[in-house]
Design goal:
Two copies of one chain form a homodimer. Chain A is α/β, with parallel strands linked by helices. Helix content of chain A is about 40%, strand content about 15%. At the A-B interface, helix 3, helix 4 and helix 10 of A face helix 3, helix 4 and helix 10 of B.
């Protein structure tokens, strides 16, 4: 039985989107692929509210995290962390041989403007990383307030929006984000395998002076190709078909504002359910609009719950990393509908109130 | 009009293979994906005649070239080059900050055992790179003879088999190849977006002592995950569906030996056509079984020829890089049939003998 994916990515992909991948191969150096890339770039700029360079990578978003680190950290970076994915930034920085400091807050808390201000005021850093929406804890950090602080410093502002882009409005140029990156398998409701990012002119200029950019994730090489509506190496053509189609759906069919509204509405429903039955992990004002993380205050057997939901045709998501057993998550992202979420919550209620949970 | 791709990758993919990508998403951490990965690894080991670790990367093969360099070059590497893709190895090595020497022969010539022996005997190198089948010049270097030489040295043997694996028998363990890498969009007749490689125990052991392995292409991290039938990051699930299906087709339906025979038969036909009408670029004994590169001895207008073939429903391939205008290529790889190739040659004859070529 095909399960409905109530995990925070990969998410269910609409049949009409999957269908795009049945299209035959084309040359990766011809006019047809250039036209596809041109549409993708145009619509991605709309999606991200940016005029910056758009890079398309055949990799997961983690690859572009490595790219951001390799291309944008010259002296030393600070990695703000409030969960598993924010911590990954720090691991990557160290693995790429960069000088890097980890500034951590408790899992479940947001990164705040004050925390960022304090670290950056040390003058030690030329780059900072953060995760906008921590998939592991359901926390959405206040990016606007943080951006206001970052503007006062000469640092590269590197942001992982993996689980928020296309589900929440993120105005890249207004926020002054230098590198904003994400994968396709979360709020964009596409199969995994492609990652995208915007890169500011300032970041590109800075990269020219940074050695150790490597090859596959060298932003300058990627830019040089994409400026010609080409890719450096053979891209995942089938995934580009799907991306092209889905961006058009998001921008021109559903509409961005409607998409954000739907995500907000689903988040409201999930949070109310959580508050009525358990406890939200984040403070409500920092709760994510794309995934709701819930403390397992009833000490339910999450493994048992997972099994019961599987029988009902759902893929359930418990917590992540050190939150694995003490929390569970209700994702509401991508092309998920309000009705599907409500049905899921009903089924969840039934499973929870039944025996063995 | 959908064109038949007579370019050396991406190649045409069978509808039944494309169809696999319509399958719905699944969790990237569940039992189902592990079962898929297990089958892929088992069949890939058969395809490569190896017991080595198999790594699966969501990237193009170029990404794994970077991985091979980062993980396996400690002191200094030698990059044997006889075409564009062999030269890429050298570029990557330099970009990754490795000490590297380029040993070049004229484009169109093979790398020979003597050339390799001479370079390695200097004792300067702990790693060497080569391309088995140079897509840019249609040259297949004598890998068995080279392997016989390499065995006498303590060097990591890094081989790009991008355009030969699955079209030509490459017995990795017998040859003692440490890292053997390729993408899916050539002889495997799959969409691009995934790359695979085998890594020997010796290479993995050596990697432990090498810093600067980075993150995304860190072979030790990739191995740690794949040993648990997991991936480090969310993989391109749709492409894994297609890979799983196609490996089964290659190994269990067509059969590997039949596949090699078909490629050899097509190569024979293409070479005869080339010799009758033009001139082969490589010496016949080094001519590739997957792509035939032909000197444009009649000084045809290749742009005009490309247009005429496009009208007949073909994507034609001229030369690559500095061979762009002086040569053209007839690929015969993947699931291409003998009949399709013969029809193409007939149509090519008609176009060539007609006006404007």
């Amino acid at each position: 039985m095909q399960k409905k994916l109530f995990i925070p990515g990969p998410v269910d992909v609409l049949p009409e989107v999957l269908k795009q991948m049945e299209r035959p191969m084309i040359s990766h150096r011809g006019k047809e692929i250039s036209a596809i890339l041109e549409r993708i770039i145009g619509n991605t700029r709309k999606l991200m509210y940016t005029k910056n360079t758009i890079l398309i990578s055949t990799s997961s978003a983690t690859g572009l995290m490595e790219g951001a680190i390799r291309n944008c950290v010259s002296k030393r970076c600070v990695n703000f962390a409030n969960g598993a994915f924010a911590e990954r930034w720090h691991g990557i920085a160290k693995e790429c041989g960069k000088e890097a400091d980890l500034v951590s807050v408790e899992w479940g808390k947001p990164i705040t403007a004050d925390i960022v201000d304090e670290a950056l005021s040390s003058g030690k850093y030329d780059a900072m990383t953060m995760v906008h929406n921590e998939t592991s804890t359901g926390v959405m950090s206040p990016i606007s307030e943080i951006a206001n602080v970052v503007k006062d410093y000469d640092v590269s502002f590197l942001v992982d929006t993996v689980s928020s882009m296309a589900g929440v409005k993120i105005e890249v140029d207004k926020l002054g984000i230098d590198v904003c990156l994400y994968g396709t398998q979360k709020c964009m409701a596409l199969p995994p395998g492609l990652a995208l990012c915007s890169v500011s002119d300032g970041a590109l200029k800075k990269a020219e002076g940074i050695t150790g950019r490597g090859h596959y994730f060298d932003f300058l090489a990627l830019k040089k190709s994409i400026d010609k509506l080409q890719t450096t190496t053979t891209p995942a053509i089938s995934l580009l078909y799907a991306l092209d189609y889905q961006l058009d759906r998001i921008i021109n069919k559903e509409g961005q504002e409607n998409r954000y509204k739907r995500h907000a509405e689903m988040a409201g429903i999930a949070r109310k359910w959580a508050a009525d039955n358990f406890e939200l992990i984040p403070e409500e004002k920092y709760a994510s609009n794309t995934v709701t993380a819930i403390r397992n205050t009833k000490s339910m057997d999450l493994g048992g719950l997972k099994k019961k939901l599987a029988e009902k045709g759902y893929e359930f998501s418990n917590g992540y990393g050190k939150f694995k057993d003490v929390s569970f998550r209700i994702p509401h992202m991508g092309d998920r509908t309000v009705e599907e979420l409500m049905q899921y919550l009903d089924d969840l209620d039934e499973c929870i109130s039944g025996p063995s949970c």
